């Protein structure tokens, strides 16, 4: 059957529109549009259905919450969620006894502190991909208090013209302060603080007095993070959880022990739990010497601090040996801190009587929980991972491990360190429990959800216009698609991990789905997913495929065959964050360089800040959008329709225990108070506990918008 000219023209017009809306992104059938056009022009019937240009927006209620099969690991999910919430908010996790996971995620899943929140960034990445640290601050310095007028970090004479005069450019990062620079020595049973020694810090100090260190990237939100296929800005938290660290199958030495037959010796095993990047992410910060830990601490040490106590009359002797400096640098020691019978779960923090998860575990006096971490683990997890009369002995010299029947001879060898099974596997419990807790932090009742659920009055006329721009001329949906408002979601990535794209320079490349270079900073400032893992492998899955290691390192086969000479677009690319609750999560981008949603919209409208410099790796959608002032206001209004009021008012499941966060140090960027040990004294800010009904007024922004 011949097809008329009018039809051919119509199809070609549709294909042109499709190509434009796809922003030159192509699925594994890269030439589908061209093939359809050729088939039409050749006079053949066409049965191929045009793929929608992007993930359509929808209510988040329509998307199943991703997660692994917990069979054989978790025996009671509700108790594991309680354990995860306690671990997430407990300040005793940190080496300093003051830093929790929540310290950087206490407001809408992010960090709103304003003092001592700057990292100096890096000057450039060299030809081998190694960062060249920038030890000089462009803005204020350590202990500086951020002001609204500091933003945006890249200021232009004309916000609509990226080529207009640059008023100022700051390569510092607005991020989150963590811990002082210290080296781990040991834990003392029942003491929230680890035994550490102070290390010199040439960067984070004021007049030679050490200040808390600050992370090199802005803090992403934990709310809805369960939908991400990979986590962290550079995607290093793998979709498969190995039970030990963030790197999944990339780390062949990540091992646990289990006891499938009671009383028998534990067996060394490797695990890989799919759709568990939250667990992979969770086990990273507690051992980071920037975020929560003294350098050299391991998960087993923290676990002994939390659940401790070897099941033996020799426990006291063993504790003496465990208190000695070990120098061991394996991801094990954290368990020895929290498993101590003398360390009360959340022991320094109030828990609301009506806490939606922890209320039933609340101590009579309201301080902490009435169950220990050891009890919570026993109630939540399958016994094969913690119930054993055997222990695991690790050689401090070579890291070799073996199960030993607990006895005096197993602890007197100064070259070996002994862990209970619960301590040794503490990273497994920590990761999975926090993943299960964070899987409850789903905000699916924002006005946008209500709109798609059938309430057409849920959006204002201005927000409806903004939605149309979001899906059309502003091209936002091309990266922030689907109910999740991110292309980095499990739903979008799991079957299409690699994609083709025509880059900003007009040339085709393969890229990691959900990771884009949008010109926030020069590509060489931070390679993002273009960097490497600790084992020397590319973080970019496109480059892993190019090396022929996809099955080995990622556990599956790539959806695209990548040739050795195929161009890869990975450098300077970062994971697309969700836009849900974005009104509450300033500052924005991986460098924290924009303070308001208006500044973000202006950034996209002008085609980014470093469009020309990054052109080889630039997402093709980053171009001058020519939006009017009304268009910008409408887009900002629509973005505010993505706020779930439960998040704003901290209603369940977003309620939480009391928290004290360190908010810089008394003084300023030129003078601080020495605590007598060479460290600056902490300035603490209380985040009061809140129960399931939330607050009558939302928490105030520490950094008001201009």
User: Would you identify the regions where 5 or more consecutive residues have pLDDT less than 50?
Assistant: 1-23, 27-51, 308-331
- The average pLDDT is 87
Tell me the number of strands.
23
User: Into which percent range does the helicity of residues fall?
Assistant: 10-25%
The main β sheet shows up as:
3 strands, antiparallel
- Order of strands in the sheet with most strands: 1-18-19
Shape: globular
What is the count of helical runs?
Answer: 17
Helix/strand class: alpha+beta
Please state roughly what percent of the residues sit in beta strands, choosing from under 5%, 5-15%, 15-25%, 25-35%, 35-45% or over 45%: 5-15%
Task: Tell me the span between the first and last alpha carbons.
Answer: 64 Å
- Radius of gyration computed on alpha carbons: 26 Å
Describe the structure.
The protein is α+β, with helices and mostly antiparallel strands and 706 residues long. Helix content is 20%, strand content 11%. It contains 17 helices and 23 strands. The longest helix has 17 residues, at 5-21. The model is unreliable at 1-23, 27-51 and 308-331 (pLDDT under 50).
Short description:
The protein is an alpha+beta fold and 706 residues long. The protein has helices at residues 5-21, 32-41, 77-89, 277-282, 299-306, 315-322, 373-380, 421-424, 426-438, 447-452, 461-471, 490-493, 541-546, 550-554, 597-605, 629-640, 645-648; strands at residues 25-26, 118-119, 122-125, 131-133, 154-156, 166-169, 173-174, 182-186, 195-198, 205-206, 209-210, 256-258, 267-269, 334-335, 390-395, 401-405, 416-420, 498-502, 508-512, 515-516, 574-575, 659-662, 684-687.
């Amino acid at each position: 059957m011949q097809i008329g000219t009018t039809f051919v023209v119509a199809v070609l017009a549709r294909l042109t529109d499709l190509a434009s809306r796809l922003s030159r992104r192509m699925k594994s059938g890269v030439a589908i549009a061209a093939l359809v056009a050729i088939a039409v022009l050749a006079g053949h019937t066409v049965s191929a259905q045009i793929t929608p240009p992007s993930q359509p927006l929808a209510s988040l209620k329509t998307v199943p919450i991703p997660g692994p099969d917990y069979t054989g690991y978790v025996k009671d999910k509700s108790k594991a969620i309680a354990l995860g919430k306690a671990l997430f908010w407990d300040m005793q996790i940190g080496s300093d006894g003051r830093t929790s996971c929540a310290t950087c995620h206490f407001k809408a899943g992010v960090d709103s502190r304003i003092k001592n929140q700057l990292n100096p960034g890096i000057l450039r990445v060299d030809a081998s991909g190694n960062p060249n640290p920038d030890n000089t601050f462009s803005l204020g310095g350590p202990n500086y208090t951020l002001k609204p007028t500091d933003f945006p970090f890249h200021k232009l004479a004309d916000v609509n013209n990226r080529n207009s005069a640059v008023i100022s450019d700051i390569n510092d990062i607005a991020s989150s302060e963590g811990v002082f620079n210290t080296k781990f020595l040991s834990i003392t049973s029942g003491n929230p603080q680890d035994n550490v020694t102070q290390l010199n810090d040439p960067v984070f100090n004021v007049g030679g007095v050490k200040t808390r260190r600050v992370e090199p990237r802005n803090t992403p939100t934990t709310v809805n993070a369960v939908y991400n296929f990979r986590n962290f800005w550079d995607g290093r938290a793998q979709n498969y959880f190995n039970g030990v660290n963030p790197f999944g199958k990339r780390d062949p030495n990540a091992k646990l022990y289990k006891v499938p037959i009671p009383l028998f010796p534990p067996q060394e095993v490797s695990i890989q739990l799919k759709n568990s990047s939250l667990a992979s992410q969770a086990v990273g910060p507690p051992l980071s010497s920037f975020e929560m830990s003294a350098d050299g601490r391991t998960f087993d040490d923290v676990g002994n601090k939390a659940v401790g106590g070897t099941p033996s009359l020799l426990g006291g002797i063993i504790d003496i040996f465990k208190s000695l400096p070990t120098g061991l640098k394996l991801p094990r020691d954290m368990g020895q801190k929290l498993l101590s019978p003398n360390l009360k779960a959340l022991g320094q923090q109030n828990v609301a009587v009506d806490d939606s998860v922890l209320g039933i575990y609340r101590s009579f006096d309201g301080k902490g929980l009435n169950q220990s971490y050891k009890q919570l683990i026993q109630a939540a997890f399958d016994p094969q991972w913690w119930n054993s009369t055997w222990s695991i002995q690790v050689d401090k010299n070579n890291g070799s491990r073996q199960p030993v029947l607990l006895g005096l001879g197993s602890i007197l060898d100064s070259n070996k360190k002994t862990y209970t099974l619960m301590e040794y596997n503490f990273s497994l419990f920590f990761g999975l429990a926090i993943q299960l807790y964070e899987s409850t932090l789903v905000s699916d009742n924002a006005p946008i959800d209500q709109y798609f659920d059938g309430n057409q009055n849920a959006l204002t006329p201005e927000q409806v216009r903004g939605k149309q721009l979001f899906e059309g001329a502003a091209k936002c949906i091309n990266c922030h698609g689907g109910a999740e408002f991110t292309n980095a979601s499990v739903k979008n990535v799991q079957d299409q991990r690699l994609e083709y794209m025509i880059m900003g320079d007009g040339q085709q490349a393969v890229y990691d789905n959900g990771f884009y270079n949008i010109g926030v900073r020069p590509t060489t400032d931070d390679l993002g997913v273009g960097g490497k893992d600790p084992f020397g492998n590319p973080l970019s899955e496109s480059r892993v495929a190019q090396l022929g290691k996809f099955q080995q390192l990622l556990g599956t086969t790539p959806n695209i065959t990548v040739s050795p000479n195929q161009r890869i677009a990975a450098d300077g690319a970062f994971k697309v964050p969700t836009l849900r609750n974005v009104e509450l999560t300033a500052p924005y981008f991986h460098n924290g360089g924009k303070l308001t949603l208006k500044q973000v919209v202006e950034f996209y409208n002008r085609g980014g800040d470093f469009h020309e410099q990054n052109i080889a790796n630039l997402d093709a959608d980053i171009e001058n959008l020519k939006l009017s002032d009304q268009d910008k206001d409408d887009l900002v209004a629509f973005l505010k329709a993505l706020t779930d009021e439960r998040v704003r008012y901290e209603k369940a499941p977003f309620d939480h225990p009391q928290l004290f966060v360190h908010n810089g140090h008394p003084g300023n960027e030129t003078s601080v108070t020495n605590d007598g040990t060479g460290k600056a004294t902490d300035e603490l800010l209380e985040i009061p506990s809140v129960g399931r009904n939330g607050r009558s007024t939302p928490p105030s922004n520490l950094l008001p918008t201009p």
